[in-house]
Each structure stands twice: as structure tokens, then as C-alpha cells.
Amino acid sequence: MFQQEDYDVIVVGAGHAGCEAAAAAANLGSKVLLVTMNMNTIAQMSCNPAMGGVAKGQIVREIDALGGQSGIITDQTMIQFRMLNRSKGPAMWSPRAQSDRMRFAEAWRLTLEGIANVDFWQEAVTGIVVENDTVVGVKTQLGIEFRGKSVVLTNGTFLNGLIHIGEKNFGGGRAAEKGSRGITEQLLELGFEAGRMKTGTPPRVDGRSLDYSKMEVQGGDEVPSKFSYLDTPRLTQQRPCYITYTNERVHDILREGFEKSPMFQGRIKGLGPRYCPSVEDKINRFADKDRHQIFVEPEGWSTVECYINGFSSSLPEDVQYRALREIAGFENAKMFRPGYAIEYDFFPPTQLSLTLETKLISGLYFAGQINGTTGYEEAACQGLMAGINAHNKVHGKAPFVLKRSEAYIGVLIDDLVNKGTDEPYRMFTSRAEHRILLRQDNADLRLTPLGHELGLASDERLERVRMKEAQAADLAELLQKFAIETAEINPLLTELGSAEIHEKTRAVNLLRRPNVELADLRRALPALDAALVSFDAEALEQAIINIKYETYLQKEHQQAARQQELENFVIQGRLDYRAMPALSHEAREKLLKIQPETIGQASRISGISPADVSVLMVYLGR
Amino acid sequence: MVQPIFSDTIVALSTPPGAGALAVIRLSGAAAIALTASVFSKKSLPTAAGHTLHYGTLRDPNSGEILDEVVVALYRNPRSFTREDVVEISCHGSDYVVRQVLALFLRQGARLAEAGEFTKRAFLNGAMDLAQAEAVADLIASDSALSHRVALNQLRGGFSQELRELRGRLIKFAALLELELDFGEEDVEFADRTGLAHLLAEVRRVVAALLRSFELGNVIKNGITAVIAGRPNAGKSTLLNALLREERAIVSAIPGTTRDFIEDEISLDGLRFRFVDTAGLRDNPADEVEAIGVSRTRQRVRQAALLLYLFDLSEMTPAEVQREIQELTEGLDLPVMAVGNKTDLSTTEALAAFETTFRAEHSLTASSAPLVFVAANQQIGLDALQTALLAQVRGSALENTASATIVTNVRHARALETAAAHLAAVQAGLDTGLGTELLAADLRHALAALGEITGEISSEDLLTSIFTQFCIGK
């Protein structure tokens, strides 16, 4: 045996999924080997240098609440923070950060190096080692066999990666990095299904060659927030992004390149994400739009490299260059590298159980783009869940699955496993039926107790949660009791355009009004202000949200409880659905393939009717 | 006592639908007895022992209206068919009564049972042995297939078009809300509140139209309830018998839901009419009509689709006829026909004079009502009466019945009602400036309720709508 004993968890790939998987398993106590093709590209931000965004920011908060690392590392390395959707209700608030790409990668590597249980190996993995339908290790290009009780594959875009720029294409997993061969072929032989997906990235340019005076400045929040619930550093200064626009001249030049477009000419077979179209796709599909927004995002505190968000392209590099130079502020732009499209293999995630373990091979887990998802946040949370579950399985502990009503992470994995995906899957808040419950402000309340029980979230995290809960409860009582006389509040209500009160009322009643905020009441009522001084801002926020959303929260909780009745019907073991003639033909096929773990899960599989669910319940008896 | 697996209480008609002297409506679940007690006249029901029968009336607690006289059979957990608390209500077998009773229980909080659900509960609660599982599963599957066929049949005609339209509008509206929430950072044009209000109004209009067509659908399926009212000697039964003899198309002759009233059904030109004779007017002297008869008759009239006011031409003046029609229909929007009987005792001139005076009277409802003259005992004028009846019905709510969207399924109507309520909440939210995420939450409930009718509208549908309409993505 080479170099090492038997590992508990071997993680293949060190992107956002691989890093979270390795850190989680190791922090839980597993002996972990992280195998990556290049140790200098650990935790690369292959696309834009940003974490979070609508729905994605909530996921990062959830990762942090469970005891993952992405939030902490983002806080340590961000150069700008914005809370998106601030003008909407708190359920929609979504943290987003611009990151320093190099520091982000460095911080991740140092974090991993700081975990004693993580070993590293730099080499391409060519296959897994399987005995009796159970994974027992991985094989590398040099022919080394590492033994492990479980393996997490997080191959990103590297499996048979094919990069397209105009009429040229070449194998590769990322710009200037080799692709990986062998794993797909072996998995197909083992009986897995594979598919092909496509994604793309824009050109990077030299910030010194841009004229920012012709662009709009987009700064960070005046009072920047952050991702982690722990005491991570707060931003004291920020770097702005810039906004500019394409124009008809840009579009004309891009159109010249259409005949060499690998997408329009059909050379790209994989399906790309509809919400992340290339610039040529945008001007082709929305021909009536005379301009498209371009964001110039700095790649770090001190680097001059800029990411041209909104200009993803796989047209020939000279077309990209000429078109780019027609954009206001880009007249003298110098390109560092062109945009490109990349095709890669993925494995339809309906082949997984809710722990992200494959149904075919015991101990084998998939996380990230290999499952057909897109996005750092989506990848990172799958890595975290795969790492936790690999550890739990190896140590004989119960599977860790989050419900749809508990976390966006639960929604994501449930969607993947039960519905599969044809295009790269990205999280949107609209995918979550319990959106009002799944907020960025309460990820800690929802998940830290679970993370603590796992042994991943620290005691400190749990203490903070208990403190926040206790304060919020005190506040709820205080606001419920705090009496307000008509005379002391009616001037304020008139000022706010809210109806005057005619008799004494409680603070909570006024706060229920959509246009009355706590800050207003504190301004008008010094006694209330004084009573609230000792409470933390986060607890205050929590108490107010609970008041504002009260009826909706109740409804959502009721609905989640009803759904839970079906989730409580556990389906034991693998069932032979073919022997259930009363099921519809489609239902039998789908159930055989997905092998749901509960009746609730079965009910969410596309093609399963309520009658099928009833029939299933009867077959299962009690 | 069996620990219940299911937390909700289900209700369904458990005798075959269609004409029968009696119908049995069954409830099963933890709230079966409480729900029944909330609408039943005997207040001792909640404490009554299992395996007991109770005679009384069902009353809608909202309107105070008595729906029927019934016998309630009580079975307590676990000594029942499903091993849950079960109530079986024997009521009169007319479709109308059954639907009213079902609708009442749904409003009170019961859920309409799925195909085979009582049997399923019985099995899951351990009332049957495992060997029966296969049979139960087959039963559910075939019941479901049957209701699917019924639904498909309904889709023929104008219904599917209406549904496609509704689905399209719902997706458009929901997509606009989601666009704001998920893509607020994008460089696209968001619908303003006025635009959203317009779209919502369209959606609500379609849902309301479908709901109305449910009423209409019931009318077509159950017959058009025409109440015949008039003074005792006006000749109501003679007219009824004449109509029945004439048509020979009696669908059924069933006892009325309350003994005082006689119902008969005849088919005219493919439409079923249910004639309800009003006992109140019949059994009381004319001078007491205002006191008791009118109020009782009005109760019938309220449920009618049409009022036939029959009078003896030799006994009443146009003004008297006007006044009585007025009293019967006050506050109701209901087509009325005035039928003057015993033309054989009158002259053509007298009839013409009567009509002129009748039209000149100031009562709007009555003076615009068609006036028909018959001699019921001699079968004279019946053709004209039938033609006028059909014209009256066709000219009103039943216009274009052939192509009208008709929802006859109680479950669908219930879904539409629920959706309409949630859509009203969305409307209220729009009006008061509620956050978009909360509007979307209310809308989601409406979409869920309508799912059975429009087919599920998933988040994927909304995203597809967004991506095809708007240039999203950086």
C-alpha cells in the first residue's frame, strides 16, 4: 500500500463541493484524503468572483449554520457586500459578496491544511475501486490505489471536458487545465447513466485599460453585513463594481461571428443554463433589445484583472475582442483571456438517494456539477451534505437529510433526486414552497441545532442560537405588552400615512401594519427605545419578522406539518414495484428507478399521481 | 381506541349517484361527529353512544336554512368500517339535496374523499387483513381511472379551452411575481402594481366564470328548478298534470325534500325541469299568505331557477298578480313567468285588456315577465307555455348551454371556491401594498387548489415562462 492507511472518506476534486466535503468529514472525525489534479487550484472560482445572490446567499448562510466553511471564507476574503432584494420582505433578502478570487482560494487551502485529519494527493484519478457493489478506493493515473471506505466524486466540469472558442475546441476542465478521462467510462460500465451539459464564461480583461468614467459605479452596502453567524471580520472598506452596456455596434460585430459559433452551428450538444445565456444567445433570442447590461467586477483587492459579467461568449476570440471594444469604457480594453464554452459529463441525479450516495454503488457519493447543478453555492452545500453522510455511513450513524421545509439545501437535493434536471440546476427562491420559512436571517435557528447534534457546529454556534432565541422570545413578550397611548403615537402614524388609533394599544398591533417599522416607533417612543437598548440587533430583527410574517408563518408551518404526515410513512428496503399491478405503468417505472424512502418522497416524483400514492400506501400496509 | 393515521376527516356520497329515494353520505375521521353536530338539530349527538340512530334536520349555520330531514347513524372508533369515527347520513336522494349536503360539510372543514379512500383507510387502520390489500389497490386504481374518464369527458366541449386560458393567465401572473422576487437584480421591466391588478382581475374573472358554470352545470344535470306558486284554486296541480301528460317524459317522480312540497321532473327539448309545487300557498287561505305562506314559499323560491306564478284569470286583477309576484321575488334576481289560467272562461278581448293593464303596471319585475294564457284542464296553450319556458331559460343564465363551460364535479367546484378565496386574498394584498413574497404565497395556495383542474403548475413552469419572456442572466 502506498503512503497511507485505509481512509474513511476519499474526496476526488477540490472545488467548492470537494473542499466542503473534505472539511466536513474531517471535522466530524473521519480520516480524509483529498485528491486533486492541481493543488494550486484548490477552491478556484472558475466563473465570476462572487458568492451568494438571490437564493444562493441563503444557501451559504445555511452551510455556515450547519458548521461548513464557505461563509467564513467568504467573509475573510470579500471585497464588497450587498444585501440583494432589500426593498422586498425579509424572506427575500439575499446576501451577495464580491470575492478576492486568489485570497478565497488561498483561505480555503489554508483552512484545509489546518484540519489535521485531511491528507492531500495531487494527481488525476482515473477510476474508483469497487468490490461487491461497494466502493473501496480510487485509482490514479500513476496506478496508485488509495483505499477508502467511501468516495465522494466532485469532478466539476472536468469529466471529458471540452472547451469551445469559435471553431476551435480542445479537451480541458477549465481554461489552461487538463480534463479528466476514465471515470465516466468506468461508471457507465458499472451501469450508471451519463449525460452532457454545457456552461460558459466571459472574457477577463485588464482593469488598467478600462475607462471607468464612462460607466456607472455600483458600490457595496453602506453598512455591509456578512455571511457567517460567527464573529468573522466586518468589511471596513469595499471595492466598487461598474456597470456599462452593450450597443447595436457590439451586437453587429457579434452577429458576424454567428457562423463560427459552436452553439449556433450545433457543435455543442450539451444543454446550457437558460438563466446564464451567452451574450450571443441574448442578442439572438431578444433581438428587439438594443442593449444589455455589463458588470465589470474586480477580481480582488489589488489585482487589475476584471471579470466581464454579462459577456459570456464562445465566439472566436477576435470577434469577442472587437465587440468588447465597442462597449462604452472598453475602447482601449486589453483582454487577458477570451470567454469560452465548456461541455462536460454529468450523471442524472435521479441515480442518487437523498444522502447523495449512489443507489448502484454503496459508499459512493456525488456532489456538485457532476449532479447537473451549477453554482459555487449549490456545489458547496452538496459537498457538505455528501461529506457528512459519507462520515455518518462509515461510522454507522444515521443518514442526514434536510427537509424541504427546513432548508434550501433540502429543496435542492430533493429536487435533484426526485425530479432530475435537464439543464444545469440553479437554486431560485421560487423552487422553495416554504420560502417564507427559509430566510437568510434564521438559517442558524433552523439548522445550527442539527449541525451541533451532528458534531459539526461548535458549542459556540449553539450558544449564540440559544441566546438569539431567548432574546427574541423576551422581545416578543415585551412588544406584546408594551402599551401605547393614542396621543403619543398618532402624530407619527399620520406622518407615516397609517390610520390613527382611537384607544390605547400594544406595540405589537402597530408593528403588524405593513408601513410601521420598529425604528419609527423607537423614534416616537423614548420609553420603548430605552427598553430595547439591551437587545442584540439580530434578535430584534427576528422578533419583528415574526410579527410581520405571523399569519403567513403559521400557514407555512401547518402546511409543512401536513406534508410531514406523508414523510412519516417510511418505505423499508427496495421494493419490487413491478409486482404491484394496480400502479400505473409510469409510476412503476419511476418508483423502480428512484426507490423513494418515504411516501412523501414518492408523491413528489414527477409522473406519480395521487391515486398511485394511495395504492402504494395500501401495498405498504401500516 | 385506534390511534388515527390520518388527521383530516373525509366525506363522500356512498350510495350510487343519480336518482334513488335515499342517499347515504358518509364521513370518516376524528372530526366526523363534531362536524355533523355542527349542522345537526339534535344537540346530544357529540355524547351519543356508537351504533345509534338519530333523527333530525340538517341546517346550514351560515344561512340558517334547513337543507333536509335526515337520519344520522353514528359509529365510534374503532367499531366502524374504517375504525375511525364514522357518521352515515341518510337524506333524500335528489342530486340537489346531496350536493347541498356535501357542499355544507366541505364548508365546515371536511375534505372530499379520494377514489377508494374509505376502503384505504379501513385497510390502513387495520380493519381488513393483508390478503385484501391487492383487491383494495385494484379498486382504488379502477375508481381513479373511472374518475379520470369522467374528467376527460368533461374536457370535451368548451371546458378545455377555458382551462388552458386560465392556466395561461395564472402562469403569466405568477411568473411576473416570481420575476420580481428571483430576478429583482436583472435589467428587465417589472410589471407595476396596476399591471398586476389587471392580470389578477382577468384571472379572477375566469375563475368566477368557471364557478358560475358549476351552478349552471348543476342546473343542467339536476334539472331547472321551477317553482309554481299561486293561490289555492289557481289550478297548479291541473297544470302540472297537463304538462306531465303532454310530455310523457317523466324522469322520475320523487318525494320532495320536505313533505309539503311536491317535485316532478319533465324533460323539455333536452332540458330537465323540476317543478316544485308550493304547499304554503296551496294549504293556506289567501289572507294568511302574507303571514306564513309567503315566507315558506320564498324559501323555495330562493332555491329556484325560475318562478311560474299561476293565477285564475277570473279571480285576480293584473294589479293583484303584480303585487303577489313582487312579494315572492323581493330581493331576488330570478326569471318570472306569469301564467293566467282558465282562458276558457274568458274572452279574447278580456285577455288583451288584461295584458295591456298588466304591462302598464309599475312593478318592473312583474311587468317585464312573459305573460302566458292557458286552459290547463283542456290542454290549451301548453305549447305556448313550453316555448315561453324554454325561451325564458335560454335567454337567461343558460344561454349558449351547448358551448358553455360546465363544471359538474363537486370536487372541481370546491377547488375553484378555494382558489377564488386565495385569489381574493391576493387582491386584498395588492390593495394594501403587501410584500410580493406574501402575494406569491397566497397565489401559491390558489395554484395548489386549482392544480386538480388546470394540471399542476410547478415552479419549473413559472421559470420557463420567465426565461422565454425576459432576457435573464449575466
What does this structure look like?
The complex is a heterodimer of chains A (622) and B (474). Chain A is an alpha+beta fold and 622 residues long. Chain A is built from 21 helices and 22 strands. Among the domains of chain A are: 138 residues, Elongation Factor Tu (Ef-tu), domain 3 (Beta Barrel); 96 residues, tRNA uridine 5-carboxymethylaminomethyl modification enzyme MnmG/GidA (Arc Repressor Mutant, subunit A), CATH 1.10.10; 53 residues, DNA polymerase, domain 1 (Orthogonal Bundle). In chain A, the strands form five sheets. In chain A, strands 1, 2, 6, 7, 8, 9 and 20 form a seven-stranded mixed sheet that branches. Chain A has a six-stranded antiparallel sheet with strand order 14-15-16-17-13-18, with no helix packed on it. In chain A, helix 2 runs parallel beside helix 9 and helix 15 crosses helix 16. The radius of gyration of chain A is 26 Å and the shape is globular. Chain B folds into three domains: 145 residues, Probable tRNA modification gtpase trme, domain 1 (Gyrase A, domain 2, 2-Layer Sandwich); 123 residues, Four Helix Bundle (Hemerythrin (Met), subunit A) (Up-down Bundle), CATH 1.20.120; 174 residues, Rossmann fold (3-Layer(aba) Sandwich), CATH 3.40.50.300. Helix content of chain B is 49%, strand content 16%. The longest helix of chain B has 30 residues. Chains A and B meet through helix 18 and helix 21 of A and helix 3, helix 4, helix 5, helix 15 and helix 16 of B. Chain A: InterPro entries: FAD/NAD-bd_sf, GIDA_C_N, MnmG, MnmG-rel, MnmG-rel_CS, MnmG_C, MnmG_C_subdom, MnmG_C_subdom_sf. Chain A: It is found in: Cytoplasm.
Q: What does the overall shape of chain B look like?
A: globular
Percentage beta strand of chain B: 15-25%
Largest sheet, spatial ordering of strands of chain B: 3-4-5-2-1-6
Radius of gyration of chain B: 27 Å
Structural class of chain B: alpha/beta
Helix/strand order of chain B = EEHEEEHEHHHHEHEEHHEHEHHEHHHH
What overall geometry of chain A do the principal axes of the alpha carbons give?
A: globular
Low-confidence stretches of chain B: 149-153, 246-260, 282-286, 397-406
**Straight-line N-to-C gap of chain B:** 61 Å
* Helical residue percent band of chain A: 25-40%
* Highest-level CATH class of the domain at 204-341 in chain A: Mainly Beta
| CATH second-level architecture of the domain at 204-341 in chain A | Beta Barrel
The most extensive contact between chains is: A-B, 56 and 48 residues
Described by strand count, sense and barrel closure, the largest sheet of chain B is: 6 strands, mixed
Report mean pLDDT of chain A, rounded to a whole number: 94
The CATH fourth-level homologous superfamily of the largest domain in chain B: P-loop containing nucleotide triphosphate hydrolases
Number of structural units classed as domains of chain B: 3
Count the E strands of chain B: 12
Radius of gyration of chain A: 26 Å
Q: Helix fraction of chain B?
A: 40-55%
